[in-house]
Amino acid sequence: VQLQASGGGLVQPGGSLRLSCAASGFAWEAYVIGWFRQAPGKEREGVSAISSVDGSTYYADSVKGRFTISRDNAKKTVYLQMNSLRPEDTGVYYCAIDSNGSGWYHGPQYVDYWGQGTQVTVSS
Fold first, then answer.
1. Residues 82, 80: Cα–Cα separation, whole Å
2. Which 3 state secondary structure label does DSSP give 20?
3. CA distances from 19 to 5, 59, 110 (A)
4. CA separation (Å) from 41 to 2, 4, 38, 83, 91?
5. Closest CA to 45 of 92, 81, 3, 8
6. What φ, ψ does residue 61 adopt, rounded to 5°?
7. Which of 18, 112, 114, 118 could join 98 via S-S bond, C-beta 3.0 to 4.6 A?
8. Which residues touch 100 (CB under 8 Å, ≥6 apart)?
């Protein structure tokens, strides 16, 4: 399984970024795909996820109302639109996939596959 993430960068507070993650090499029809992030000295935390089956979504409380996750099932690609970015959003963002969303609800140890990280820095 390969998860190819892109879209990170440096942005000023209040700005926006869009992350993309293209998945390949698996045959699951039902899966949950999304993003974790890790700031320096902090644990990896789930940010957002979306189900391939019904489009149901998960958002961490800290990003609700600011981030929007979407998917293109045909392309097996997930997008994370991040608006009103704050310095505390800074970190390495990792694309992840698992079969039922356990990674986001029960901890990153339950994620099946990880992509490479992409750095997001929010700073003036």
1. 6
2. strand
3. 7, 15, 22
4. 27, 25, 8, 24, 10
5. 92
6. -55, -35
7. 112
8. 32
Confidence at residue 64, expressed as pLDDT on a 0 to 100 scale? 98
- Residue 72: which of 52, 101, 56 has the closest Cα? 52
* Residue pLDDT, tens place only, 33-83: 999 999 999 999 999 999 999 999 999 999 999 999 999 988 889 999 999
CA distance 124 to 113: 34
Instruction: Tell me which residue has tokens 């391939």.
Output: 52
